């Protein structure tokens, strides 16, 4: 009798664990599908906004500097949603946008020398 009860408890516990695990995998699938839909939507908007050479340049940029390419994509999508784009952007137009974005995100590097004041032997030799 104890073995039957123990087996029933094990089956019940296993069913609970599987249902919890199944729910988390469903959540993960939902998140993956949402990301995929968002990516497809972004790509369709960019396909409408950019011509073929500009899309090629943007994809090359994404390979080298993904964060900069993402910023440019967001900028283009925002402009498209606001209706600020008059037509398809050519490669030269994309280059202009890239220059604007790089100027905005450009990091200024400065080097500062902290000179320590040490007793120079030259000052003592003057005596």
From TrEMBL:
<protein>
    <recommendedName>
        <fullName>Programmed cell death protein 5</fullName>
    </recommendedName>
</protein>
<keyword id="KW-0053">Apoptosis</keyword>
<dbReference type="GO" id="GO:0006915">
    <property type="term" value="P:apoptotic process"/>
</dbReference>
<comment type="function">
    <text>May function in the process of apoptosis.</text>
</comment>
<keyword id="KW-0007">Acetylation</keyword>
<dbReference type="InterPro" id="IPR002836">
    <property type="entry name" value="PDCD5-like"/>
</dbReference>
<feature type="region of interest" description="Disordered">
    <location>
        <begin position="1"/>
        <end position="43"/>
    </location>
</feature>
<dbReference type="InterPro" id="IPR036883">
    <property type="entry name" value="PDCD5-like_sf"/>
</dbReference>
<dbReference type="Pfam" id="PF01984">
    <property type="entry name" value="dsDNA_bind"/>
</dbReference>
<comment type="similarity">
    <text>Belongs to the PDCD5 family.</text>
</comment>
<keyword id="KW-0597">Phosphoprotein</keyword>
<feature type="compositionally biased region" description="Basic and acidic residues">
    <location>
        <begin position="7"/>
        <end position="24"/>
    </location>
</feature>
